[in-house]
Amino acid sequence: MESIQAWFRRLYDETGINLTIFYDPWDGLKYLKGIGLTIELAVLSVLLSLVVGVVGAWLQGVRFAPLRWLVYGYIQFFRNTPPLAQLYFFYFGLGALVPTTTNAFGLAEPILNNFQWAVIALSFFAGAFNVEIFRSGIEAVPHTTVEAARALGYSRLKSYIHIVLPLAIRICLPSLNNNLVNLVKTTAIAYAIAVPEALYVANQLWSDNLNVPEMMNVVLVTYLTLVGLFVFGVSRIERALHVPGYTPS
Amino acid sequence: MTAVKRMAGGAVVLGLALAVAGTAQAGAVLDKIKERGEIVACIKVDYRPFGFRDPSGTMIGLEHDLVDDIQVRLTAALGKPIKVQRIPVIAANRVQFLEQGKCDMLMATMTDTPERRRLIHIVEPNYYASGITVMAKKSTPIKKWDDIRGQTLCTSQGAFWNKEYERKYELKLLAFAGIAESEQALRDGRCIGSLTDDSLAASRLTDKEIWGDYEIKLPTQDTKPWGLAVQHGDNELFKIMTDASIDWHKTGKIVELEKKWGIVPTDFVKDMHEKYKAK
């Protein structure tokens, strides 16, 4: 550990390449925590966006028209505006309107903090795409299969859960994974509302140490690694769910 | 092994070439300014009254007045009319912009630090100075610096005090890209106060409509000088800037500008004026 730190310190003195995260324990720990928060943000918003997608796709098929319009409006809003603008809108636009609690100093403080708003904004953003992706999968499930399920006595909800969704997920998995990979990368925009994830911490560090090119490279490698691991994971799932003869391998 | 050696050798040659190019450039930026008939200045527009926009969108402020003075000096020195192009910067990108040559000079409420001196050529004497304080709602019960220990404070990305204060007072800092976002977060109650520059806080508080409920909570500490900067390597331009800075203190120009922009006179400017007037 000591020798690694000494090596990076020497690297700085001799070449000017300043990677403080490898020799300054404070900076290193901060960056590690940043990566941790990026992962937390990614996992939570991936899960929530999947829930949004499944529920939204089901609501798109209900008989009650106003619900369908609501889903349609939601999709249009979130698909047609930039995620960064949405994040600002949630945090600064809506954030001030939500109820407040009183903190230790007796001052009003909004109940949702920046991390929670980031999870909400990211989930709704990716969720809008997920709804459409699930819909494409659902529509690809043969009508005859659905009718057979209904003939066997499945209700609409039960056939959705047990028959349609399992098949639809397998069909739309490739495009779903695409969207989720995008979502993992999009977590970086949370830096705009001061969520201390990897990019935010990197920004702080390069402001303190003025080692912009070095930290830019570190950030790039960090995301490459994180997204690489994620892609590896989802392709494993894709393979595990593969149904011979039904989905292309 | 040999490949590695060759690469290392290549890097050394490249480094030498860069070093030579660096020294051979004395006056290069000044020549460029003369050729273009224009100096490009990186400057702030989010820092009333040092740099901001008036209702018509024109960039004005104390620093803008000083850049205008530089323009006059350059016109005299180069013997042809020089225009000014202003590039608005924020704390998080100003040093990089100058370093990359996006602008020829940087005057952006920047504190003079050794780390920054490594990258850019900071002019002496320093033209201004400011310290750190906390601005918060009047009802916030903080009276001394120790009261902020462990609290959440708003600040802006790239401010030099962030790391030091985060460690010293175990703060949770919410750092935003711009000053406007940081202040909105303060008004929304995202933090108990804003960790900020005393000069900025004082000027904000003059706007009673928005900041009537707020006040400066703590005595200013860590007062540090601000630096005007150019790229390393052009000593002629650096000399013009140095002469300008000396002149500003000698003639009391900055004392006047403080008055013009309604800034509470700072000891730094007063002392510098006394010092240089005597010379």
General description of the model:
The complex is a heterodimer of chains A (249) and B (279). Chain A is 74% helix and 2% strand. With 249 residues, chain A is mainly α. Chain A has one domain (2-82, 113-241): MetI-like fold, CATH 1.10.3720.10. Chain A has a two-stranded antiparallel sheet with strand order 1-2. The longest helix of chain A has 35 residues, at 25-59. The model of chain A has no long low-confidence stretch (mean pLDDT 90). In chain B, helix 10 packs across helix 12. The model of chain B is unreliable at 1-25 (pLDDT under 50). Chain B is globular, with a radius of gyration of 21 Å. With 279 residues, chain B is an alpha/beta fold. Chain B has two domains: 26-127 and 227-278, D-Maltodextrin-Binding Protein, domain 2 (3-Layer(aba) Sandwich); 131-223, 3-Layer(aba) Sandwich (D-Maltodextrin-Binding Protein, domain 2). In chain B, the strands form three sheets. In chain B, strands 7, 8, 9, 10, 11 and 12 form a six-stranded mixed beta sheet that branches. Chain B has a five-stranded mixed beta sheet with strand order 4-1-5-13-6.
CATH topology of the largest domain in chain B: D-Maltodextrin-Binding Protein, domain 2
Supply the number of helical segments of chain B: 12
Class of the largest domain in chain B, according to the CATH hierarchy?
Alpha Beta
Helix content of chain B: 40-55%
The domain count of chain B comes to 2
**Roughly how many Å apart are the termini of chain B?**
62 Å
- Assembly state of the chains shown: heterodimer
- Describe the main β-sheet of chain B briefly: 6 strands, mixed
Mean pLDDT of chain A, rounded to whole units?
90
- Give the uncertain stretches of chain B in residue-range form: 1-25
Count the beta strands of chain B: 13
Strand order, sheet with most strands of chain A = 1-2
Overall strand count of chain A: 2
From N to C, what is the helix and strand string of chain B? HHEEEHEHEHEEEHEHEHHEEEHHH
End-to-end Cα distance of chain A: 45 Å
Which band does the percent of strand residues of chain B land in? 15-25%
User: Beta-strand percentage of chain A?
Assistant: under 5%
- What is the name of the CATH architecture of the largest domain in chain B? 3-Layer(aba) Sandwich
- Which overall shape of chain A is indicated by the principal axes computed on the Cα atoms? globular
Please report the number of helical segments of chain A: 9
